[in-house]
Amino acid sequence: MNYITSCPACETQFLLTKKHLKAHRGKVQCGNCEHIFNAKNRLTEISDDINSPAEYQASLESDTLESNAAIDEKPINEVLNVVLGSVPNLSNFESEEIANSSFIGDFLPEEIETPIVIEDLTADPKFHKKKFKLNFGLLAFCLLLTILAALQSIYFFRTKIAAEYPQFKPYLMQACGTLKCNIDLPKNLDLLSIDDSDMQESEQYQNVINFSSLLINNANYTQAYPNIELTLTSTDDQPVLRRVFKPSEYLKASTNVANGIALREEERINLAINVTDLVVAGYRILLVY
Ligand SMILES: [Zn+2]
């Protein structure tokens, strides 16, 4: 199969063979105006029998005569293109010389053949800009979520944080002033203990017994004072009296309950209990919050 192509710049028509098309993947240079174009996009198939401009022109004239009636009905422009299409150089054209001829086929030098990569979107600076913007937004969002999560954790663990890291307590208290929250002292019963307990009948008052004990904070931080539940028992170990004492009841009047019991501190507890009509043989003591 042979082809006719036309230069998009000057409309000059040329005869091409498959060999010419394959040589540079269809790229050719117009011998008339030197415009470079891809002939594959502008091909009209013609018979293999047509191997010269003269034969092509003859076939056009023959076609024109045969389809004279049909041409009469076609728009004038189309007829002009087919019949009178500019073929000035074709008269001097020899098909065998196409490959070497500067007249019709100045085939392109290799460097022009180097493909220009346009599919690679990453080469577009706009693409990079957009991508960067997207990642930055995502990063900022993640950062915001992390900060919110951290603040939430600080809020819920404020008591523990204030206890373990007392250097932060002033800041937490300041924040709580704004948020209307409190920073309570830690309440870890496992790190509180009772030691050196003793119960004696009062020497001064009848029917009164004096209970004495030592409250110890084993934690590395200040804790809230616990309540003390004291149960007096009978000779057969049955409870005869049970009472819960608040810190304000078992501590000395001068002690500030709100300050809590300091780390590793021991607090002496003294209680006087009226046991009128009771037979007391023993006691049980329990710390509660
Ligand atoms: Zn041209």
Give a written overview of the molecule:
The chain has helices spanning 18-23, 53-66, 68-73, 76-84, 110-113, 125-156, 158-164, 169-179, 247-250, and strands at residues 2-6, 13-17, 27-29, 36-38, 43-46, 192-201, 208-217, 227-233, 239-245, 266-274, 282-288. It is α+β, with helices and mostly antiparallel strands and 289 residues long. The protein is rod-shaped. It starts with a strand and ends with a strand. Residues 7, 9-10, 12, 30, 32-33, 35 line the site of zinc ion. Zinc ion binds next to loops.
Quick one: biggest sheet? Answer: 3 strands, antiparallel
Q: What structural category arises from helix and sheet content?
A: alpha+beta
Major sheet: arrangement of strands: 2-1-5
Outline, from the CA principal axes?
rod-shaped
Number of helical elements = 9
Q: Please tally the β strands and state the result.
A: 11
Overall helicity: 25-40%
Total number of domains: 3
Oligomer: single chain
Give a brief rundown of this model.
The chain is an alpha+beta fold and 289 residues long.
Topology:
Elements: E1 2-6, E2 13-17, H1 18-23, E3 27-29, E4 36-38, E5 43-46, H2 53-66, H3 68-73, H4 76-84, H5 110-113, H6 125-156, H7 158-164, H8 169-179, E6 192-201, E7 208-217, E8 227-233, E9 239-245, H9 247-250, E10 266-274, E11 282-288
Antiparallel strand pairs: 1-2, 1-5, 3-4, 6-7, 7-10, 8-9, 8-11
The structure holds zinc ion.
